[in-house]
Records
---
Amino acid sequence: MSTHRIPPAGHADADHLATPDGLDDAAVARIRTVLGQPSWRWLTGAVRAAWERDLSRRSVRLDLSALPDAEAAAMADFLLWPTHRIGTTTISLIRLDRMLRSSGLAAGLAACLTASSGPLRDEAGQRRADKAARRTASDQLWAEAVAHSGILRHPQLHEWLAEEWRTGRMPADTVVRRQVITDALAVLAVLPDPGTGLARLASHVLGDAHALDDGPVQAAVLRALSWLADRKAGTSGAARKRELWASAGVALDTVSSTVLVLGLTLPGRGPAVTSLAANAEAGIPARLTLGQLRHYLDAEQIPSARRQRAAHVCENPSVLETVAEALGAGSGPLICVEGRPSVAACLLLQELLSAGTMLRYHGDFDWAGLAIARSLIGAGAQPWRLSTSDYRRGLHRNGRQKKLPPPASPVTTPWDPSLAGTMLRHQVAVEEEAVINDLLSDLSSAQQ
């Protein structure tokens, strides 16, 4: 290597090692000519790459075995090593800077590397900047999310959102995360939406009928619905997903969600009205799909002037079947929710209540039955033979007593505060079938 020694041009302060000196065009041209030679690739290649990983370093480590022999020899010659080293070595960048300034290049390390092959990249600094930018974007997204109408409509979801943030369940990419959160909260903002179908909901809110079939948005919404339901149950499995959507009034389709009725008629016209009237006249149970109900309600709401004045609601299909066999067309209107009400059942009950129909609900005297009763009575139905005295009468008529285990969480019965305590003391469930004669008597009288 040929160098032209000139008096030292000072040296870079350690805190400004990565700041290149200002050079005129002649100096830049000279540096490019010299450092463009193969013997300097150890500097423009290996040293530069090692330093760019973090420009705050004051030394770099190089694996000499990775360098061609010619480059390793040229480096040893310039650094005035007494012998050629092997293995991994540490090079002081401050010392290297001073040697370059004292050489014929007459420029510091940062200036030489910048002149030869462009500005230095600070990869570590860029990573820090990227991390700070992501943190800022995340903070902004959080502020937007907590102020979203979906959270304002369901304030308890603020804790769910914090859990999502803490566990990192949302996509890591900020842009993707923003889209997922925005879409999920947009869906939650319109829920519950009794009687809607999943495809209709997705099309209305997200502009794509299949946007909630699968993927991170659907998963986020289901986790939120699970949080609203019990804060701990999972969201996996077809049955669980169907249950969670149903809790928000959403059916996965319009044909599998149905409601079972006996003696119920609706005013107006159309296939649902005709079918219900024919079955009621014959005393035969009928099953309405969500699609049939929506078709009817889209055509005409139930006019309050022609509403069904009263209807009874039961929990179990076996009860409705027994009523149909015993009373037939002589039974008052009876709707069966078949356990936890389906989306179709919820929609029908809501429309009847809105039209002014008095609904009276009866179910099993067990914890699941009480949960169903609380939800329906809370929505506007009246209790039907669901008092403490009714429970005690059922105990005496219950031939084969069914053990009632302690509930997983405290149970309340607002319509009769003493009922839950009485059931806890007796620890016996009373199913609807045990009091069927009382129910038959009420339904027979309701038709008169």
Note: Residues 258-447 form a domain with the Dna Topoisomerase Vi A Subunit; Chain: A, domain 2 fold (CATH 3.40.1360).
---
Amino acid sequence: MRGCFAVPEPTVDNKLMRRRRTFIDLATHTIAVVGGLLCLGIVTAVLGWIILRGAPHVDLHFFWEASRESGLAGGIRYQIAGTIILMLTTLAVAVPLSIGLALAATVYLPRGAARSALQGFLQLLNAMPSILFGIVGYLFFFHYLGWGKSWLAGGLVLGWMILPTVTISLIKSMEAIPLKQIHAAAGLGMRRGQIIRSIYLPQSVRGLFTGSFLGLARAAGETAPILFVATVFAGVSLPEGIRDSPVLALPYHIFVLAQDSLQAGAIENLWATAFVLVALVIGLSLTVLPFRLHNSNRRDHA
């Protein structure tokens, strides 16, 4: 028996709208799946090609031997050392700044325009092309401060470049902390600084670790920023100061060898160095995978 609250029969127009929505959803899903598989196929093909061409030429001598004949012979000992120096400097720059910005975005700044402005600044910084960081670093460190090419300038530029990655990861980790813990600490009379030291920082270490390694994975493969301020192709070993103290690095080594790939010996060293750099980047990315899965499960159970 139909009453006054009976559901009306769907009209022809409603049926057509539902069919259109279903078709649009199916088409969107299909495009997403096809696009994802295409990207996965391209990445797999590129990685497979680098492994096939580079892995046979990598051995212990290639790691420990210094490059010779302008990089056309020898190994990549000082290129690896220079890359490690740049990565450690980048980490030393990015981590303290990221902690301060994350605490400002979650604890100190009032909700509203101030936090939105900070997050907008981070998004804008993250969207800037890496070559702009190199140009700004070149103008400031090379010309204004007169450092010349310097490993410290390279680490400072890369640290600013990965700052959004580390900070956003840390902010998400802090926002996932249950509010009941913060309220309980405040109810016990703990001050803001004590709450930060006892709750925010210890429980956001995983987010800091994740963001730092993801940022380093990006910085390790960048050529444009360090090209202007930090690296040369040959003629140096380890830095001896700050001014006019460049380093060798894996990305720049690959960049120059690619230009000289017609010369004998350049092809083998090019693919071998590319294999080492790709292995480094993949290793840094896979290191944080367990922590990302832990943070995802933590948010799901929050």
Note: The chain has two domains: 22-56, 60-300.
---
Amino acid sequence: MCERLGVPAVLDVFHHRILSSFPGLSDRELVERFARTWPPGERQKVHFSTQHAGKARGAHAEHVDGEEFAAFYEQVRDLEVDVMLEVKDKERSLLDVRARLGLASA
């Protein structure tokens, strides 16, 4: 729809994994496909979260699963994209992810 309307689409990795509009595509292929909807010079946005272990399918976890994020990051690390964590403890999750990936703290 966004491709036809000419508006940027934000990929939500978690929701894609639950109910995919593009089954069979890797995370990288998804990010690249969604990137085509973004205007030149504008940095693409992607949302990332993980399943809450004790809740119904589709419920966001309060903390990002570092292992899941690291696997996603390895696929897209060289792409120009802003990844937004959809979790309650955004700062703690970010610091944990950065430490797991060996990235310096800002």
Note: The longest strand covers residues 44-48.
---
Amino acid sequence: MSTKVVFIGGGSAKFVREVVVDLFNYVELQDITVCLMDINRERVKLAEALVKKIIREMKIEASVESTLDLRKALDGSDYVIISYMIGGYECYRRDVEIPEKYGVLQTISDTTGPGAVMRLVRTAPEIRKIVRNLKELSPDAWVLNYANPMAMNTWYFGEYGHSRTIGLCHSIQGCYAEFFAKWLNVPPEEIEYSAGGINHVNFYLTLKHNGRDLYPDLRTCAEKVIKEYPAERLRFELLEYLGYFPAEGPQHQAEYYPWFMKDPETAVHYGAETGSGYRVDLKYFQEKNVEVKKQISGELPIDFNESIEYGGKIIHSLETGRIREIYGNVRNKGLISNLPDNAVVEVPCMVSKNKILPCRIAPLPLQLAAVMRPHIAVQEMAVAAVVRKDRKLLEQAIQTDPLTGAILTLPRIKEMSNELFKANSAYLEDWK
């Protein structure tokens, strides 16, 4: 039987296109079976038509199927790629707008703060379904989780019993190529770096070109970059005060700290736009949907270049034994000694034949560990609340968020939490 790669959230046609092209560009993977599973028939059929078009144009032996049935998709799976957003854009909108009423200004709200906690509440039941079915149908399948909230979801997969899970983001490998290469006029393939931390609060610990430290050059170009891209004031301020450059974009960074979105005026100063993630994602989805339809019809060409995503590389290495380094979200277990052992951390991982081996890195500089620990506490409490179905603990997770605590009193946090719980009541029916 051919290797079976399943996409849960397979109606995300643009993401599916990128990872499928990556997979098919490896000769050893050109006979795989791609299974697309989604709850939206129209979207998953669109994605299926696109993959069929890719297979025809590449003239390969791969096959594709689609289904609305989770069990059918997972049966016999070797790799399960998670890319869904439970609740859709309407829930996403409420995650932003309800806290905004109370003065908590979130930019993206999918991996931290009140929005991320509620997204976990909606996603956890689906994770439970996936794990239960995998135990019965494909216990050795690798789960590659792209769904947010990244750290919480990956943590919950482990808590619920599927250890062969790794969380994947593209910020670390994307940031150096997109920004540093342009700002410092260095070919991206010549930049050497190491990074570590937790998802979206991770930093480049080293940054070099031909053995030369690039950090002095990065500091020197700050004024010029900020003049051209005012939102980068935020990341260069973090570099100035924490000593290291963050590996996630400025919009995400704004909501992870208590310093940048205290009020609308401060947010504007840092170029941080409330709800930018919701609006940008919705517009992006609509545009990509049109683009995919045009690619299927032949009006637009399909891009067969390699993407920055790790999914295809990981599957190729697991199948063939080719050794690669990637960055993944995994349980800490001493990998970063000055972060909690049970946390989910983002560290280098070596991938080879049927193995993903996370790498231990040096203890983080104290100031970096300090800004990560509050988020780890939020993640731990939110996951525990979902496991126990405990509303009070869920509220306490929200009140632990650094930005929320910088803005609201405890009684106001309770009011906001109750409104969020009411908006998500369908997911909290059997909670105590």
Note: The first helix runs from residue 13 to 24.
